[in-house]
Specification:
Blueprint (H helix, E strand, L loop, with lengths): L5 E6 L5 H9 L3 E8 L2 H11 L4 E3 L2 H7 L8 E4 L22 H11 L3 E7 L6 H9 L9 E9 L10 E9 L19 H5 L16 E4 L2 E4 L2 E2 L11 H9 L16 H5 L43 H8 L6 E2 L3 H10 L3 H12 L3
Parallel strand pairs: 1-2, 1-4, 2-3, 4-5
Antiparallel strand pairs: 5-7, 6-7, 8-9, 10-11
Helix pairs in contact: 1-11, 9-10
């Protein structure tokens, strides 16, 4: 097998979840540039993968200000999905949904062998996906490329988390479609216990370690911090602690006695069974989102401890290695963790491409 370096361009890179997956698959993958507009996330990317790699700004500005790197083998990225996410109100005209055009422009300029787009499972039902399909037709901006798409569950590829993502793998028409990765853990998925069972139940403080600063993009951020340094809790009100204590293993807000119900829950006896839910030791976790530290946002209570999972535990459920660095406030870091592609899923996609590179 060739040992040549595989040059990767990471768009909408976040804190580097996809890059971490590719690097985990093989040290042949080398990121030559990353583009991310969230400054704290871009700083985390730089702190993890090296100075000078990250363009901190909008992809539109990057395309105007810089030459796209040459000899790129693979472009990866997940254009922001909020406009057509199944969470909350959908807006098909959300400006964020047009960012696929900048992704396509980058493909045209870089001329990679392959490209990967990951997004919410609903992506294939969006107008933007139809535009992508039109782009690879004769006369389209990507007429020299073709792609296939599917929905992959991270739990099927070694992640201790159920997280379904639409994955598009594109290829130059001179090359064959490389295929999608084959599930490796569908029958015996990794569980919450596998990921965080050995983590102490007691948290190690509330606030981020003091006195550490990271200069990036003309601003000063807290950090960098390893994931292990983020085993931090919150200051809960007594009513919250009482509610946590009343929720049994595998339970949720429907397990609460009447005197502990919030007024809105008294009026609404239906709805999500994940709100104020406890994770189960013997199953993969639910999807780790950006507000995993708030039990009212989903099934994010620790399986046995009376608290939400910590940033460290969330990072482990996402598959981040101990070497990954995070920069920013606790809220900013939570957003970086929740927005990331689970590392095992990224590694599975990279391993599939590696067979053809």
């Amino acid at each position: 097998m060739s040992k040549e370096t595989i040059r990767v361009l990471d768009l909408f890179a976040g804190a580097g979840g996809l890059s971490a997956g590719f690097h985990a698959a093989s040290d042949r993958f080398e990121t030559v540039r990353a583009v991310e507009m969230d400054l704290a996330a871009a700083a985390s990317y730089e702190a993890t993968f090296g100075k000078g790699l990250t363009y901190a700004g909008r992809i539109q500005d990057w395309l105007l200000e810089e030459d796209v790197p040459s000899n790129v083998d693979v472009i990866v990225g997940g254009p922001p999905c909020q406009g057509f996410s199944t969470l909350g109100k959908q807006d098909s005209e959300d400006v964020r949904n047009t960012l696929w055009e900048e992704y396509a422009t980058t493909i045209v300029r870089a001329q990679p062998k392959y490209f990967v787009v990951e997004n919410v499972a609903a992506f294939a039902k969006s107008r933007q996906f139809e535009d992508f399909q039109d782009a690879v037709k004769p006369g389209g901006i990507l007429e020299h490329y073709d792609f296939q798409h599917t929905v992959l569950n991270a739990a099927d590829f070694g992640a201790p988390q159920a997280r379904k993502r639409a994955v598009v793998i594109g290829h130059h028409r001179d090359l064959d479609f490389p295929g999608f990765p084959t599930p490796t853990s569908r029958k015996a998925p990794r569980t919450v216990f596998d990921a965080i069972g050995s983590v102490p139940q007691a948290v190690e403080g509330i606030d981020l370690p003091y006195g550490r600063e990271y200069e990036f993009g003309g601003k000063t951020f807290a950090g960098p911090f390893s994931a292990r340094e983020l085993h931090l809790g919150r200051n809960y009100r007594q009513i919250s602690l009482d509610r946590f204590a009343a929720i049994p293993a595998g339970g949720n807000r429907f397990s609460l006695p009447t005197d502990l119900l919030a007024p809105c829950w008294v009026k609404h006896q239906t709805g999500s069974g994940d709100v104020m839910g406890r994770l189960r030791w013997n199953r993969p976790s639910v999807t780790i989102r950006t507000e995993f530290f708030k039990p009212e946002k989903g099934r994010y209570l620790h399986p046995v401890a009376d608290r939400a999972i910590t940033h460290y535990e969330a990072a482990l459920l996402q598959g981040f290695p101990e070497t990954h660095k995070f920069v920013g406030s606790k809220t900013a870091i939570a957003r970086q963790i929740g927005n990331a592609v689970p590392i095992p899923l990224g590694a599975a996609i990279a391993s599939q491409l590696l067979k053809h590179l």
